[in-house]
Amino acid sequence: MASQPVTLDALDRKILSALMANARRSFVEIGQEIGLSPAAVKRRVDRMRESEIITGFTTVVRPSALGWRTEAYVEVFCEGAAPPRRLAEVARTYPEVVAAMTVTGGADALLHIRAADIEHFEEVLERIRAENFVRRTNSVIVLTHLLPGSPDAGATAPAGSAVTAQEANPPAAPQD
Hints:
single chain
């Protein structure tokens, strides 16, 4: 757990930038690029991990490689005030929900969903709508990622480009 705020200097930011671009780079490579010894890079990375600036390292997989070729964002409107805890429980029950968050505006939550195809997406959407606290949903199907190299790009990203399950803030869509 972070004990006190850590101030990032220019070298910390360069290390973070290098790791965000490729977390498999060695401390030797990063050190050579920014002018530090591998040991100094390691100490800084360890400090940023301890202070929870770096929260982990992960493997990034192109969703289409796993068969997820349909992508959508679903606004969820709830009866009354559904607590975020309950929304999180529901989101965790669906492997197709790759991210979920409460949001400001008319909707109570926003779900990022990946599915094999439209039929699969529709089945997931119907299961979500069947939750007793869901009043209605609005869906936005992703057609094309305009920035295919971005972390949000998925099924339409060029082969070999990395994809994470980070969120975008899509525009509102017509009501389902």
